[in-house]
Design goal:
- The protein has 233 residues and is mostly helical.
- It has helices at residues 2-11, 17-23, 28-31, 42-50, 67-78, 82-90, 92-100, 103-128, 130-145, 147-168, 171-197, 203-232.
- The radius of gyration is 52 Å and the shape is rod-shaped.
Length: 233
Protein backbone atom coordinates (compact mmCIF):
# COMPACT_ATOMS: atom_id res chain seq x y z
CA UNK A 1 0.00 0.00 0.00
CA UNK A 2 2.92 2.32 0.79
CA UNK A 3 4.36 1.74 -2.69
CA UNK A 4 1.12 2.83 -4.30
CA UNK A 5 1.06 5.75 -1.91
CA UNK A 6 4.54 6.90 -3.00
CA UNK A 7 3.74 6.20 -6.63
CA UNK A 8 0.67 8.35 -6.61
CA UNK A 9 2.73 11.07 -4.98
CA UNK A 10 5.23 11.07 -7.87
CA UNK A 11 2.60 11.07 -10.59
CA UNK A 12 0.67 14.04 -9.28
CA UNK A 13 2.14 17.55 -9.49
CA UNK A 14 3.31 18.93 -6.20
CA UNK A 15 1.58 22.10 -5.04
CA UNK A 16 3.78 25.13 -4.70
CA UNK A 17 4.20 26.74 -1.28
CA UNK A 18 2.09 29.77 -2.14
CA UNK A 19 -0.73 27.48 -3.39
CA UNK A 20 -0.81 25.57 -0.11
CA UNK A 21 -0.79 28.73 1.95
CA UNK A 22 -3.66 30.11 -0.08
CA UNK A 23 -5.84 27.00 0.18
CA UNK A 24 -5.05 25.56 3.62
CA UNK A 25 -7.09 26.57 6.67
CA UNK A 26 -4.10 25.99 8.97
CA UNK A 27 -2.35 29.01 10.55
CA UNK A 28 0.33 30.82 8.49
CA UNK A 29 3.05 29.49 10.80
CA UNK A 30 2.19 25.98 9.62
CA UNK A 31 2.26 26.56 5.87
CA UNK A 32 5.17 29.03 5.94
CA UNK A 33 7.65 26.66 7.60
CA UNK A 34 11.16 26.41 6.12
CA UNK A 35 10.44 22.92 4.78
CA UNK A 36 7.84 24.37 2.40
CA UNK A 37 10.52 26.28 0.47
CA UNK A 38 12.67 23.24 -0.21
CA UNK A 39 12.22 21.21 -3.40
CA UNK A 40 9.59 18.53 -3.03
CA UNK A 41 10.62 14.92 -2.92
CA UNK A 42 8.44 11.88 -2.36
CA UNK A 43 9.72 11.56 1.18
CA UNK A 44 9.65 15.25 1.99
CA UNK A 45 6.22 15.84 0.46
CA UNK A 46 4.74 12.83 2.23
CA UNK A 47 6.19 13.87 5.58
CA UNK A 48 5.07 17.46 5.06
CA UNK A 49 1.53 16.25 4.36
CA UNK A 50 1.31 14.66 7.81
CA UNK A 51 3.64 17.01 9.69
CA UNK A 52 3.92 20.47 8.14
CA UNK A 53 5.13 22.03 11.37
CA UNK A 54 8.33 21.11 13.17
CA UNK A 55 8.10 20.05 16.82
CA UNK A 56 9.98 23.17 17.89
CA UNK A 57 7.35 25.36 16.14
CA UNK A 58 4.34 23.68 17.76
CA UNK A 59 2.75 24.96 20.96
CA UNK A 60 3.94 22.90 23.87
CA UNK A 61 0.89 21.08 25.28
CA UNK A 62 0.60 17.74 27.09
CA UNK A 63 -0.61 14.82 24.96
CA UNK A 64 -3.69 13.00 26.16
CA UNK A 65 -3.77 10.37 23.39
CA UNK A 66 -2.75 6.87 24.34
CA UNK A 67 -0.58 4.79 21.98
CA UNK A 68 -3.53 2.50 21.24
CA UNK A 69 -5.74 5.44 20.25
CA UNK A 70 -3.00 6.94 18.11
CA UNK A 71 -2.52 3.60 16.35
CA UNK A 72 -6.24 3.43 15.62
CA UNK A 73 -6.19 6.90 14.04
CA UNK A 74 -3.15 5.99 11.94
CA UNK A 75 -4.98 2.91 10.66
CA UNK A 76 -7.83 5.12 9.49
CA UNK A 77 -5.45 7.50 7.75
CA UNK A 78 -3.53 4.67 6.01
CA UNK A 79 -6.66 3.67 4.09
CA UNK A 80 -7.10 7.14 2.61
CA UNK A 81 -5.72 8.27 -0.74
CA UNK A 82 -3.37 11.17 -1.22
CA UNK A 83 -6.19 13.38 -2.44
CA UNK A 84 -8.23 12.58 0.66
CA UNK A 85 -5.26 13.35 2.89
CA UNK A 86 -4.65 16.65 1.09
CA UNK A 87 -8.33 17.49 1.46
CA UNK A 88 -8.06 16.92 5.20
CA UNK A 89 -5.19 19.43 5.27
CA UNK A 90 -6.86 22.07 3.12
CA UNK A 91 -10.59 21.64 3.86
CA UNK A 92 -11.63 22.49 7.38
CA UNK A 93 -15.09 20.94 6.97
CA UNK A 94 -13.59 17.65 5.77
CA UNK A 95 -11.17 17.67 8.69
CA UNK A 96 -13.99 18.31 11.18
CA UNK A 97 -16.11 15.58 9.61
CA UNK A 98 -13.23 13.10 9.91
CA UNK A 99 -12.56 14.22 13.50
CA UNK A 100 -16.19 13.75 14.52
CA UNK A 101 -16.21 10.27 13.00
CA UNK A 102 -13.53 9.02 15.40
CA UNK A 103 -14.78 6.77 18.19
CA UNK A 104 -12.79 8.64 20.82
CA UNK A 105 -14.37 11.94 19.79
CA UNK A 106 -17.84 10.39 19.74
CA UNK A 107 -17.33 9.09 23.28
CA UNK A 108 -16.19 12.51 24.49
CA UNK A 109 -19.12 14.22 22.79
CA UNK A 110 -21.56 11.76 24.34
CA UNK A 111 -20.07 12.39 27.78
CA UNK A 112 -20.31 16.13 27.21
CA UNK A 113 -23.95 15.86 26.18
CA UNK A 114 -24.77 13.70 29.21
CA UNK A 115 -23.05 16.13 31.57
CA UNK A 116 -24.89 19.02 29.94
CA UNK A 117 -28.23 17.26 30.38
CA UNK A 118 -27.47 16.45 34.02
CA UNK A 119 -26.41 20.04 34.67
CA UNK A 120 -29.60 21.38 33.10
CA UNK A 121 -31.66 18.92 35.15
CA UNK A 122 -29.98 20.04 38.37
CA UNK A 123 -30.54 23.67 37.42
CA UNK A 124 -34.25 23.00 36.80
CA UNK A 125 -34.56 21.21 40.15
CA UNK A 126 -32.88 24.12 41.91
CA UNK A 127 -35.25 26.59 40.24
CA UNK A 128 -38.23 24.45 41.24
CA UNK A 129 -37.04 24.52 44.86
CA UNK A 130 -36.60 28.30 44.88
CA UNK A 131 -40.12 29.04 46.30
CA UNK A 132 -39.50 26.54 49.10
CA UNK A 133 -36.12 28.12 49.82
CA UNK A 134 -37.71 31.58 49.94
CA UNK A 135 -40.41 30.31 52.31
CA UNK A 136 -37.86 28.71 54.63
CA UNK A 137 -35.81 31.90 54.57
CA UNK A 138 -38.86 33.91 55.59
CA UNK A 139 -39.60 31.48 58.41
CA UNK A 140 -36.04 31.77 59.65
CA UNK A 141 -36.35 35.57 59.59
CA UNK A 142 -39.58 35.42 61.61
CA UNK A 143 -38.03 33.02 64.12
CA UNK A 144 -34.98 35.26 64.41
CA UNK A 145 -37.03 38.36 65.13
CA UNK A 146 -39.65 36.81 67.45
CA UNK A 147 -38.94 33.45 69.02
CA UNK A 148 -35.20 33.90 68.99
CA UNK A 149 -35.42 37.31 70.64
CA UNK A 150 -37.65 35.95 73.43
CA UNK A 151 -35.43 32.91 73.92
CA UNK A 152 -32.34 35.15 74.02
CA UNK A 153 -33.94 37.37 76.65
CA UNK A 154 -34.87 34.35 78.76
CA UNK A 155 -31.37 32.99 78.41
CA UNK A 156 -29.91 36.29 79.59
CA UNK A 157 -32.21 36.23 82.64
CA UNK A 158 -31.16 32.68 83.48
CA UNK A 159 -27.50 33.68 83.14
CA UNK A 160 -28.06 36.56 85.53
CA UNK A 161 -29.74 34.26 88.06
CA UNK A 162 -26.93 31.78 87.73
CA UNK A 163 -24.35 34.46 88.44
CA UNK A 164 -26.29 35.57 91.52
CA UNK A 165 -26.57 32.00 92.84
CA UNK A 166 -22.87 31.35 92.26
CA UNK A 167 -22.01 34.59 93.99
CA UNK A 168 -24.35 33.81 96.91
CA UNK A 169 -22.84 30.36 97.49
CA UNK A 170 -19.25 31.31 96.85
CA UNK A 171 -16.76 30.53 99.68
CA UNK A 172 -16.18 34.20 100.42
CA UNK A 173 -19.91 34.91 100.62
CA UNK A 174 -20.50 31.92 102.91
CA UNK A 175 -17.71 33.04 105.24
CA UNK A 176 -19.13 36.56 105.38
CA UNK A 177 -22.62 35.34 106.23
CA UNK A 178 -21.22 32.95 108.83
CA UNK A 179 -19.31 35.84 110.39
CA UNK A 180 -22.46 37.97 110.44
CA UNK A 181 -24.52 35.21 112.13
CA UNK A 182 -21.74 34.62 114.64
CA UNK A 183 -21.69 38.31 115.54
CA UNK A 184 -25.48 38.31 115.77
CA UNK A 185 -25.45 35.40 118.28
CA UNK A 186 -22.77 37.20 120.33
CA UNK A 187 -24.80 40.44 120.38
CA UNK A 188 -27.97 38.59 121.44
CA UNK A 189 -26.13 36.89 124.32
CA UNK A 190 -24.71 40.27 125.43
CA UNK A 191 -28.18 41.80 125.31
CA UNK A 192 -29.55 38.92 127.36
CA UNK A 193 -26.76 39.45 129.91
CA UNK A 194 -27.71 43.14 130.23
CA UNK A 195 -31.31 42.13 130.83
CA UNK A 196 -30.14 39.93 133.67
CA UNK A 197 -28.18 42.80 135.20
CA UNK A 198 -31.18 45.06 134.90
CA UNK A 199 -33.32 42.37 136.52
CA UNK A 200 -35.52 42.17 133.43
CA UNK A 201 -35.29 38.37 133.31
CA UNK A 202 -35.13 35.73 136.01
CA UNK A 203 -32.09 33.55 136.46
CA UNK A 204 -33.65 30.30 135.27
CA UNK A 205 -34.80 31.73 131.92
CA UNK A 206 -31.49 33.55 131.54
CA UNK A 207 -29.45 30.40 131.96
CA UNK A 208 -31.44 28.48 129.38
CA UNK A 209 -31.37 31.23 126.72
CA UNK A 210 -27.80 32.29 127.40
CA UNK A 211 -26.54 28.70 127.21
CA UNK A 212 -28.32 28.23 123.85
CA UNK A 213 -26.97 31.50 122.41
CA UNK A 214 -23.38 30.86 123.50
CA UNK A 215 -23.50 27.30 122.14
CA UNK A 216 -24.69 28.66 118.80
CA UNK A 217 -22.01 31.35 118.84
CA UNK A 218 -19.13 28.96 119.56
CA UNK A 219 -20.39 26.44 116.96
CA UNK A 220 -20.44 29.17 114.33
CA UNK A 221 -17.07 30.48 115.44
CA UNK A 222 -15.46 27.05 115.13
CA UNK A 223 -17.07 26.49 111.73
CA UNK A 224 -15.87 29.90 110.52
CA UNK A 225 -12.34 29.20 111.75
CA UNK A 226 -12.25 25.78 110.08
CA UNK A 227 -13.61 27.13 106.79
CA UNK A 228 -11.20 30.04 106.77
CA UNK A 229 -8.26 27.78 107.53
CA UNK A 230 -9.31 25.39 104.75
CA UNK A 231 -9.63 28.17 102.15
CA UNK A 232 -6.24 29.60 103.09
CA UNK A 233 -4.57 26.18 102.89
Amino acid sequence: MFKSFWGSQEQQPQPRPHDISGQSWYPPSVVSSPSASRPSTPSSSASSSFNMQRPSDRPQSPSHVSPAEAAGIIVLLKDKSVDELRKLLSDKDAYNQFLLSLDQVKIQNNLRDELRKETLQLARENLEKEPQIVELRNQCRIIRTTELAAAQEKLNELDRQKEEILKFYSPASLLNRLQENMNKADEESEALHRQLLDREIDIVAFVQKYKRLRTTYHRRALTHLAAKTSSIG
